Amino acid sequence: MTETGPVVIVHDPTLRDGQHAIRHQLDAEQIRAYAAAADAAGVPVVEVGHGNGLGASSYQVGHSKISDEEMLSTAREVLTRSKMAALMLPGWATSDDLRNAVRHGVDVVRVAAHCTEATVTERHLGVIRELGAEAQGVLLMSHMADPDQLAEQCALMVEYGAQGVCVFDSAGHYLPQDVGARIAAITAAVDVPVAFHGHNNLGMAVANSIAAVEAGARVIDACARGFGAGAGNTQLEVLVAVLERLGHGTGIDLRLLADAADLAERVLMPTPPTIDSVSLASGLSGVFSGFKKPALAAAELAGVHPWDLFAELGRRRVTAGQEDVIPDAARDLAAQGVPR
Amino acid sequence: MTETGPVVIVHDPTLRDGQHAIRHQLDAEQIRAYAAAADAAGVPVVEVGHGNGLGASSYQVGHSKISDEEMLSTAREVLTRSKMAALMLPGWATSDDLRNAVRHGVDVVRVAAHCTEATVTERHLGVIRELGAEAQGVLLMSHMADPDQLAEQCALMVEYGAQGVCVFDSAGHYLPQDVGARIAAITAAVDVPVAFHGHNNLGMAVANSIAAVEAGARVIDACARGFGAGAGNTQLEVLVAVLERLGHGTGIDLRLLADAADLAERVLMPTPPTIDSVSLASGLSGVFSGFKKPALAAAELAGVHPWDLFAELGRRRVTAGQEDVIPDAARDLAAQGVPR
């Protein structure tokens, strides 16, 4: 293939986002096998950890099978060329977790906040820089902010020390034009690499990622077979094939990457993610896909259709962490006589 | 949702293309259950039959579980609002099969040919018109022809009596700009509705279908959960959600469609289709996805990597029916010393 477009750096959170699909139960052997295969294929960055990042293993969101330390040191042993990355959400992780992560060989740490709350990333971005690791800022549920707001929030994170910024389509709500407008606004506002992290709820993860690249994103997140929360992430090996077809170099050996994806399907996942009706409803409504279980339970209890409940949650603009709104919304729908 | 864009007619071949994924083993109960659910949701056209169409049940491509007559009459009993469609490939089906199909209540018959061989559709398009059914012409493996060629071939089919034309992305090879250019050329050349039938090998089936609509297509094929050959078709319920989001009416009740897709996943398929490495390789190379089994066998025997074999078959521009080229290509690769 002739490389005519800009080079794209692929960031691979298979061993972190995929954890959501299996209640954070990856063991050391699985992590070693996939990290080695991704490294062999030349994947530039491999992210490892609990689905919710450093320090998140807990009763509330689920205990990891093995500790953060064991996950990181296992991957570190086999990553010879790939950088190792970790995610952290202030509230779950502390500065101690960051120090611990860097001690175990993490090269890149991403600090994530809700799309309008970049200010909460300030302290930890600073700590990461002090520790000498690469610091990146992440905005979650980014469809809930408009392009200018996102650009402003990204600029704040860069001010705090972020050497890269990333917008997450946490609900899988975007269509390509939505992504293009946001990435264009962000790339105009900051002078660090801009990344996009897609989910496939509307079947658009690859198309959205290409729209991001066309609008100036230079880093794209993608997971083997799309292994990730809900409908899954952008499918890594498919993305790289399409990028190559469009003339964007990635430095990845696509044949070896296909082998790595085959291995991932075999050793990491019960089945690859697909788009079920609940994922579709949450993506369409712009609701956090982690709400699937409580929403199904509340819909059942109140006798309303899950589809209508997701639409109502979307209208209420609920954000991750607002699980308590779900039963209320279901009861209100039932009271309004919305039929199942 | 406000409907601002043109109305799109969704053509649903779940009960025909999905047969490829299960060796044509749908029984009457399955057909009845899904056809009734699709009808209830308001899907305008439901296509039923053997994966290769009327008269194709055979040792060579696999025997259907039940006869064409039983499939059609079963679906006919429960389709109250939806039109019933059938596919036919000259060579498999004869004029007798067409008469039989219309007698069993088929409203629409599609006659399919390789993308450069529209002339073979002439006789059967005429027979369908004589029988008083709606006649449509289909071009298979349409990525192997350029926009002008496709437009020419479509115009020929309209001359023969086609009241609609459809281009199939049989290999799942297209990216949105490829589809847009072709549909635009065809809509400029013919005055009948233009349809697009996508496969998801490059994760682009929904995005490609949207590109088709934007370029003037007024009919889009899509299957519940994408149930279809190889990596599957455009996912019906996802497509309708995205079309609604973009302001295109479909006349379909999305909530009932989601229920129909849930039923389809439960009663029709072992698992919904996903994009495996072989599907990706065949999509990228533009090779007919039905070549999966013989290609894997030939690669194994010759000791070459399936990925390289698909690339070689793509370079040789093999078309459906040229299975005999596969072992030759594998042996040639092995002789050139291409390593596994």
Automatic annotation (TrEMBL), chains A, B:
InterPro entries in UniProt? 2-IPM_HCS-like, 4OH_2_O-val_aldolase, Aldolase_TIM, DmpG_comm, DRE_TIM_HOA, PYR_CT
What SUPFAM superfamilies does the record tag this protein with? Answer: Aldolase (SSF51569), post-HMGL domain-like (SSF89000)
Where on this chain does substrate bind?
A: 16-17, 170, 197
Superkingdom of the organism of origin: Bacteria
GO BP terms: L-leucine biosynthetic process
Q: Which residues form the Pyruvate carboxyltransferase domain?
A: 8-258
Q: Which Pfam families match?
A: DmpG_comm, HMGL-like
GO MF annotations in UniProt = 2-isopropylmalate synthase activity; 4-hydroxy-2-oxovalerate aldolase activity; manganese ion binding
Q: Which UniProt keywords apply?
A: Aromatic hydrocarbons catabolism, Lyase, Manganese, Metal-binding
Q: What is its EC number?
A: 4.1.3.39
Q: Which reaction does it catalyse?
A: (S)-4-hydroxy-2-oxopentanoate = acetaldehyde + pyruvate; (S)-4-hydroxy-2-oxohexanoate = propanal + pyruvate
Chain residues that bind Mn(2+): 17, 197, 199
CDD domains, per the entry:
DRE_TIM_HOA (cd07943)
Which residues are named in the active-site annotation? Answer: 20 (proton acceptor)
Q: Where is this site: Transition state stabilizer?
A: 16
Q: Which family does it belong to?
A: Belongs to the 4-hydroxy-2-oxovalerate aldolase family.
PANTHER family recorded = 2-ISOPROPYLMALATE SYNTHASE 1, CHLOROPLASTIC-RELATED, HOMOCITRATE SYNTHASE-RELATED
Q: What is this protein called?
A: 4-hydroxy-2-oxovalerate aldolase
Lineage of origin: Bacteria, Bacillati, Actinomycetota, Actinomycetes, Kitasatosporales
